[in-house]
Amino acid sequence: MGFSVFQAFLSTMRKLLLYSAILLLTQCSKCKDNDPNPLEQLPPATQTGANTFGCLVNGQAWTPKGYTGSSNNSVSYDPGYRFGTLNISAYRYQSKEASSREDITLFSDSLKTAGIYPLTRPGRQEGLFSGQTGQCDFYARDTHYRRGKLTITRLDIPGRVISGTFEFTLAKPGCDTIRVTKGRFDYKL
After folding, report:
1. What's the pLDDT tens digit per position in 1-41?
2. Are residues 175 and 97 located together in one domain of the fold?
């Protein structure tokens, strides 16, 4: 009689452990489902003049956020200066502290039509990043590794729309590499 009670107890414990394991696995998968995909946090890649900007910075969604008295994202295009000059600037604050500001700037000259433009020529065509990294900010005057491209998918001067995509990598000794990927913008000029 004592042995069968013990077997029943073991059977109940096995079932309890099995149900606990199943419960734990299903709860963990729910947590994973609640983590949004970084790409889903970016604005859609449109070509309508929606005034949007977004990208992934080292795999994390980055969109403009905050306000300092001027727009947190802007574009200017001058078709007559340096054979067509584009300047896109966006910033965001991670918190209310001024030191939490991050900036992304895209700049290109010699831009007259839709197409692919390298972001490798300092002061002429480049992608820049500055932020919480302090001495590891990447500015045009810096000597550092840069690679990337700006793709203009729509440059409609009469319709006053410029849209495109971008990606770039910045690196210099003693600093974390900045990888900007899946970038997109769509502005009314």
Report:
1. 565 655 655 566 565 555 555 555 555 544 555 778 999 99
2. yes
DSSP string across 69-115: SS-SEEEEEETTGGGSEEEEEEEEESSSSGGGEEEEEEEESS--SSE
Please indicate, yes or no, whether residues 153 and 121 belong to a single structural domain of this protein.
yes
The whole-angstrom separation of Cα 120 and Cα 143 is 11
This prediction's pTM: 0.77
3-state secondary structure of 56: strand
Same domain, 96 and 166: yes
Tokens read off for 131: 């932020």
Tally Cβ neighbours within 10 Å of residue 140: 13
Which helix (H) or strand (E) element contains residue 31? helix 2-34
Considering the domain architecture, whether residues 180 and 93 belong to the same structural domain is answered as: yes
φ, ψ of residue 28 in degrees (nearest 5):
-65, -40
* C-beta separation of 186 from 163 below 8 A: yes
Nearest to 104 by CA among 85, 134, 128, 120: 128
Residues 8 and 101 both lie in one domain:
no
The tokens for 15 are: 């079932």
Burial class of residue 73 in the structure, from the number of CB atoms within 10 Å of its CB (0-12 exposed, 13-18 middle, 19+ buried): buried
Q: Residue 4 belongs to what domain range?
A: 1-35
Asked if the model's pLDDT at residue 48 lies above 90, the reply is: yes
